[in-house]
Structures are given as C-alpha cells and as structure tokens.
Amino acid sequence: MSMKPLAAAVALACISLPALAWQEQEQKEEADMNSVVVTATRTAKAVDKIPGAVSVITQQELATQYLIADDPSQALATYVPGYAPSRQKMTSTGESLRGRQPLILFDGIPQSNPLRAGMREGYFADSAIIERIEVINGASAMQGMGATGGIINYITKTPRTPGTSYTVNARLASQFESDSLDWKTGLTVSHKSEAFDMLAYASVQRRGMGYDGSGRRLGIDNVQGDTLDSHGNDLFVKIGKSFGDQRLQVSLNRFDLSGDGDYRNAPGVVAQGVPTSSEPGTPVGMTPRNRVRSGSIDYRHAALFGGALTAQVFTHDFESLYGATNTSTFQDRSIAPIGTLYDQSEVVADKLGSRITWVRPDLLVEGLELTAGVDWLKDHTQQRLAGTKRTWVPELKFRSLAPFLQLEYEIGPVTVRGGVRIENATLDVDTYTTLAAYGSRRVEGGSAEFSKSVKNIGAVWRFAPGWSAFAASSEGFGLPDAGLVLRGVNVPNQSVSSLISLQPIVTRNNEAGVNWRGAKGQFGLSRYDSRSKLGSVIRITSAGIGLVERVPTTVKGWEANAEWRPHRDWSVFGTWATTDGKTATTQGAPMDLDLGARSQGPDKAVLGANWRLRPQTQLRLQANHLRDRDINIGRRVGTSNLEEHFKGYTLADAALTWDSAYGRFGLSIENLFDKQYVGYYSQSASAVDPTATYAGRGRTFALSWTRSL
Fold it and tell me: Measured on CA atoms in the order 200, 108, 68, 22, is the torsion positive or negative?
C-alpha cells in the first residue's frame, strides 16, 4: 500500500518510539456536574446557571465511544438524547438534532454550510484531538446563523501539565474478513511552560470494508460518500502565549478523507428484503472526498475596562466531492446522448469571519452581568460539476453583521438571562443559467436582504441543594438550503430577489426542565416545543429530485438523561428521547404530516454501565434501542411519497480498558450480539431504493493502544 509523505512520516514516527514510558498518573475522577463549565454560550458558565438543556461529553466518554466506533455522529447519538441515529457513512443526511439542523463548531469555527447543505460537515477533524463536546439543545442565536436545532461545539485538547510530552496512539478494528481491517495511528507533541503552550498532532488512517450481522459485505455509497474503503489524515497545530492578563492563540487544522475506489455499489433486492451490498471493482469517476482547512487567531484580555474581552478571526475552506452518476439531472444532449453522461458534483464553501465578545460582571449593581459583542461573516458557497465544469449552484455571496447584547442577573438561588441578537444579512447571486435538465433557464441575478432580531429569555432556580429548574424561550436564525432552491428553477423569467423561498427560517424553542446533580450522580428531564412559521422541508419526487417546500414545522419532545454512581467503582447511565415533528402539505393546510427521516430521528433510549474491575481496569457495557416508527400512511404531495416504515432494533456494545507499564490498552466489541439490521434512514427514506438500503455493521472488534513519554 503506497502512502503520501505525511502518512509515511506519521507511521514512521509512531513505530520508532520504543523508549516511551506510560504516564502513571491516571486522569482525575470526573468532577460533579455542577462544576462543569460550558463555553458554547459565548462565556464560560456552570451548567446549573444556564436556562436550557445542556450536554457535555467528556474526554473519557469520548475515548471509550471512539474505541467502540471511530464515528463522530455515533458518539453524539449515544450521549445526546435528541440526536438522530448515525448513518455510518461519510454523508450525514438525516442526522438531525431535535428534528432540525444543528450548527457545528470546531473551537468556535463554524463547520456547517447552510447555504448549500451537502451534509458532509460531520467529518472535519480527527477524533483524537477532541477534548470534549458541548451541546446546547434547541434553537439558539448565540453563535450565529444555522443553529435552529442547537449548537454542537467540538473543543480541542490543550496542554495541562508543565513540560514536554510525546504520545502515540493506535487503533485496529476488524471483523476478521480479509478486507475488513481498519487502522489508525497518530502522534501528539504537547508542551507547556509558564506562559507558552503548544499542541501538535498528526495522524493517518485507513478503513477497510464492513460486514453485516449475516456476514454479507456492507453496501458502499459511491455517490454521497462513505467511510468504507477510505483513507484519511489530519495535521493539527495549536500555539498559545500568555502576557499577564492577555493571551494570544493560533490554531491550524488540515484534514482529508477520501475513498479508495476499490469497491462499487451492488444493488439489493427490495422485494426480498436483501440490503445493498458491494463488490470489488472501480466506480466511475473520481472517488468522493472531504477536504477541510481551518484556522483561527484568538485573543483574550481578562481585565479590560473591568471585563473580559475575547476576539477571534477565523477562516474555513471546505470542499466535498461526490461520486459520479448518470442521474437525469446531469444529462445534456449537447454534451452526450441522454443517459450516457456521468458527472459528479462538488460543494465548495469558503468562510472568513470574526467574533468579538466582551463580558462585564457586576455592572452597576452586584450580580448583573453584561455580555456584548458583534459577529461578522463572509461566506462564499457554490456547487459545480467537476466532470464537465458546469455550474449547478451559482456562487452564493453571503454577508452577515450581527451585534448582540445579553444581560444576566443573579440574585441568590435565581439566575435570569435575556438578550437580543440583530441579524443583518445579504445574499448576492450573479445572473446564471440552470442545467439543461431544468430547461437551461436564465435566472436574473440579484440580492436578498434580511434583518431580523432574534431574542432569548430564561431563568434558572436552584430551589434545593443539587436541584434546579429552568424555563426558557429562545429563537434561532437560519436560511433554507438556498443552493437547492436556486439550482432547481425550472420556469422562465425568474430573478433571485423575487424567490420567496429564500426568506429566512426563524425557529422559536420554548422549554422547561428540572435537573439534579449530586455526589452520587445526576438527572435531567426537559420538555420542549420548537416552532417555525416558515420552515424548510425537503421532499423527494418520484424522479429522485429534492425540492424545498416552505411550510410551517413544529417539533415537540421529551428528553431525559441520568447517571447513578452508588459506588466509586461502578455507575449506571442512560438517556431517553421522544420526538414528534409535524408539518403541512402547503401553507395554511392542517399540520397533520409527520416529519420524515430526513428531518427527525425515531424515539430512542440508551442504557449503560461502567465498572472498574481493578484500579487500572474499567469495563463499559451499553445498549441503544430505537423504537418502531410508521408514519404518513397513504399520504403523498405531488409525486412525493411521504409514507415511511421503520422496524426498530436494539444494539449492544462493550469496551474494556486497562493501564499497564507499556501503555493504556483498549478492547471493544461493537454490535456485541451480531445483530442483523438495516439502518433507520435506509428503512425509512430509502426503503424503495435498491442501491441505498444499507445494513449496519455486524460484530466488530477493535484494539487500541496509547503510550506517552
């Protein structure tokens, strides 16, 4: 197997460290939940002072889950009650949060591409550099556009221990088939002195094929993208320097994930219940890939005019190439006979932005805190056809300037928060011509301007030791998939400025809940109601073309999470969520349609246990149950069939980790009982597509090793 220079260098470094010694100091016990601090709210806040449902996935939890499956969305589905099941693919279509799309951040840098949501934003960095994941559930405008379902902020590791250390990590996974080997190896260099710190990481990864519970090779998605039969690498550097009350930090991330092109999709037999499979062979065209480049400069002044100033300037360049297909949308008789033209699309999104936040505690009176700032964003997104160099989605030039003001008043056991964010946005599009499949329509360029105030208000009452209750109402701001709207114009004499479909989505989330956190565990229960008068629903026609319908949507649900630690050596944890999304056929029609798998996940429950067998050994067992779902029986809108059926399933996993003089080892079994199942999205949204009824992974073994010097 040939490797690029970066991959070869990392692999050589990882196998040439025989003198490494395992750090004997074990990570400290997890702090009580009431001491956990969340930064996704623009300022560091303890979770019991935030009026809303917050999930914090710790480094220890992530390490165990990534041992079971190196899949970011699967980690979210395990620990976040309202997150839909993982697709186990490079594409994240259908992976929603509370029936809506979340805003994904990486150290505050937006990774989501709402202007042309290619649903590839889930893979942007190696899992080994993530310290924790903060999830703010429900619509929010705290971090800008796109958080109609919530905010998911991936926080990278920071050196904590003085001195210089080197850490090598390796992971092997297999189903004991000749082509099922996955492996990843990485090297971390960490340094911390009195005022300077640095963390550098490089990794290389190769993924083989997978097999379902029946021993049949899993279906590969040669068009939307797949992690099967793929390779990737990551290079990450973060450097920080403190100057008294000030700190300057620079970070860079370079991530690539690409298919190998050794297998092609083998259609299943829908009528007989045979899922899609794969066969050796070279698919047409270039293999799907993700290419992500991001960087930021962060500045903090802890004592500026009595408050703390944080400022960030960031850049984010994203490219996602999709596989070749001869879909009817790509046909053009002026290029090739109808049905013979293969082409492949590519989404390119370039962002440049800044975030400025100033926090002033005890403003005028004790307990009153002011948070003020302004965000600026320039986002240029387009979708082109890589094979023929045609434009599918014209360049979308988006500008946003958003000042915000937040006030928090704490008096005794009560914290009240409220604020407003004013979104001023402009979308410019030049004159363009649609593809031949849409009639080669000339669409007059123009601008669409939006100015909207989005508000939030909430309160937390800590009414007893360890107990708190909250109630909150917040709004989120987003756009429909503007690229999907503009590329599908098929009637003459249209202009960008007159397309009503480009009006923004404003989602209001009302929520109330109760939490308990103590020395023996924690418990949380919340009820939410999320509404948008002018929502966005994608419906697939009988020709397989996605259309955006602007209709109202409502999502209601219950969520619960709990952990019980009766003894220092073992604990039990669980989450539960029920989601009920409704929409209408058209504006003004009854809200009697259930949201499909593209928009929301099924009801689910997760139950698990941790057991410290010995001081250096820990065992985890967990089970994930998805409930049956049958919706919209006999319902159609135009040529779109809205009926969906899903037969639920339960999956169990196990993971064992132990420390030794030679490092920390881990052994895991995903799908412990080798359950044969077809994934939620494949059963529901792709039930009649023989090329997209994908079964899930069968029993998979993984072994990991980490050693530091």
Answer: positive
